[in-house]
Structure formats: C-alpha cells, structure tokens
C-alpha cells in the first residue's frame, strides 16, 4: 500500500489505518438490480449466481462467487449492473422520485445513472453527462442496455451545462472524478498514480463541478456529492469550501445506517457538521465512498430554458408504418427526426440549447436507408428493442437455458421455426436481447458486434 496514504490515514483517522482497512481479503464485488426490468425481491429469489443483500442500496447485492456475471444473458439484457457494492449508495441517497428532472453530472460509465433512471420509472427526465468523449460513448451504451427511455446523454463541460439549464433540475448527482483511493485494492493503476499533486488537482476540479451543479439546481432541490476516495481535501474539505462560498445551501443528514460519519480531523479550514456526511471503508464491507447531501435553500418550480425546446414532429412514413406494425403501443409517443434517424422522445419536454454536444435524446428507433430507385426502407436500431422489446408484436421468447441464447450472444444466426417474417425482438426469460430478422425458419443476428460474447 502507498506510504503517503497510510501515513495520512494514521494521522487523520480515529484509530489510524488499521482500524479501517482489513489486513487481507479480496475486493468486494456486487451487482445492482435494474428495477425497470424486475423487482429487487424477484432477483434475490432467482439470481443466476450466489448473492447476498448489500446494506448500501435497496437494489444492491454482493457477488459471492467469481466470474460470469458480466457475461451472463441477464447482464446483456440489462437486468443488473455489475458494480462495486458501496458505489451504489450515492444514487440511492439522492432520493429520486418519478416525474422529476435529474442531472447526473459525471455519469460514465453509467452504474449510478442506471439507478437514477430506474428510480424515475420512465417518468420525468434524466440528463446524463460525461465530459470525456470515449467515456460518454460507454455511458450511452450502458443506458441503452438498461433500457432507459427518458434520458438525454450529453458530452459537455459542467459549466456549459449550467449555462444551458440554470435552475432547471430537481435533483443532481455529482459523483466527482477523484484520486481513487477506494480503488487501490482492485485497480493497481490507481495506486501507482497516487500523489499529493493528484489529490490537489482533483480537489480543485471538484469545487468547480459543485459550483456548476449549484447553478443548475432549482431552489429546494437536492444535490448529492460523492467520491470513491478517502482524501480529506476531496471530501469534508471540498464540502466545507462549497458551503462557505454558497450560503444558499445547507448540509442535510444522510440518515444512512451503514459506514461511519465523517471526521472532524479531515475538515481542514472548512469545518462542517461531520456527523451529517457519510464515509464507507473496506471494514464496512465496501471498497470506499464518501457522500454528502446538500439542499438549496428556498422553494420554487424549476426554471424552463427560454430556448432550445426539441419540438415533437411527425416521423417519416416508413418509420410510422414500422411502428404501427411492430410497436403499436408507441405510435402516440413524441418523436423527432435527426437527418435520416428517427427518435422516440421522453414525454417530459426536452430542451437542447444550440451548440450543446448531445449524443442521444430519448431512444433511437432507427433510420431510413436508401433502397432501389426512389424507395427507402426503415432499419430499426438496437436501442429501440432494448427499451421496448417486451412490447414488440413479433418476438422470439427464449428461456435462459436454451442453447440458442448463448449462440445469439456470440452473434450467430439461430433457428426460429414458425417465427413471423420480418424484424423480431429476442428476449431471454422476458428480458430484451436486441433483435434480428426472421425468415425461412431462422433469425439473422443483428446483435451489435461490440457487445457480443466472444470468449
């Protein structure tokens, strides 16, 4: 373990390093259930591997056996997200309710985003943002896998988002980039990169992120700040500095029963009520997390941007015909066109101010593809079937032990005797696995190459 880290822990923590870090043991592993797919209790009773309930989140479980969770058909179907157990705590602490406007400011790779989307239950709006382009693409892929239909995915700076959406959100999660001390046991690279310089750089960035989040939150709204590090500069120190500079915010008690309170010895110059924040150490059963819940003083409706509303519009004839035959329940949903692409929008109005970098708004239903002569055909997209596959009129339903499931996830064509011709959804135990094109007793595979099980 890093000497700087141990020395700091011995100096700052009651009882020192040994009181909070077990001398041995493998890193904790877990999954968080996607309640858009099924209730937590149902997963607990029928999980495909050995699990045990986690204390950090109502939908969280420990994995009690090695390997397999990330390759299982249920993972592909978005039934759960593989996630270090204590990482599930911040999103649950935000207390999201259906119908609210929620911002996940530093969202990639998407585990906490999935929790927020599940909490909304398809109502309201989730804006999931990631500044790093490659990570934003991973975020979008995970949102598709989890079937979140009411999300807007952006690739922006926090400052530009705050300018675009002043006072707009009811709840904001800032799971900030950090020095990653909570990843030391599972990611050796985090340990190699650790330094005081990195800690100071992260603390400065975190204060900027919190300032932007504060501007985007409505009066009375709730902000949860979290990190996966133990550094005082990035935790109690950052919260204290924020409260000194933002007198319109108050620190609320997390009321969490897991972990332990913060430490006064970690506050530096920004003394806060440390019993109101929460820390999780390996001794508590998680790799590491810090959380603070902040409320903006006052009360009032969220402000509406004065420009940039994405107006619903009529889809091309080919797209409309496809939906009428394959997804009749979706025909009344708000929709939009983006070039040749057709999008199904969230029911909550979507505002996309000019020049905002947006990867996706709602669900990509598909696109028009040029055909012979002047005709065009509509090609559906994987995202449509992951969000609404259970509503598809033409679908192939497979049990998880059917050998065709594994073949499908390898990208192979599978037998589908009696299946109606045309595009068909594929499900495993009722959960979506994308789509293929049926004909002649078989199903041609359209499962994205980058997502396939190739091992």
Q: In this structure, how is the largest beta sheet organized?
A: 10 strands, mixed
Catalogue the unreliable spans: none
Look at the structure and name the CATH superfamily of the largest domain: Vaccinia Virus protein VP39
Under the CATH scheme, the architecture of the largest domain is 3-Layer(aba) Sandwich
The number of distinct β-strands equals 23
How many helix segments? 13
Return Rg in Å: 23 Å
Beta-strand proportion: 15-25%
Identify the CATH class of the largest domain.
Answer: Alpha Beta
| Structural shape | globular
Total domain modules: 2
Distance between the termini: 33 Å
Question: How helical, in percent, are the residues?
Answer: 25-40%
Structural class: alpha+beta
GO molecular function: RNA binding; RNA methyltransferase activity; S-adenosylmethionine-dependent methyltransferase activity
Family: Belongs to the class I-like SAM-binding methyltransferase superfamily. RsmB/NOP family.
Keywords: Cytoplasm, Methyltransferase, RNA-binding, S-adenosyl-L-methionine, Transferase
Pfam families: Methyltr_RsmB-F (PF01189), Methyltr_RsmF_N (PF17125), Methyltranf_PUA (PF13636)
Brief summary of the model shown:
The protein has 455 residues and is α+β, with helices and mostly antiparallel strands. The chain is built from 13 helices and 23 strands.
Descriptive key words:
26% helix; single chain; Rossmann fold; Archaeosine Trna-guanine Transglycosylase, Chain: A, domain 4; five-stranded mixed sheet; ten-stranded mixed sheet; 455 residues; alpha+beta
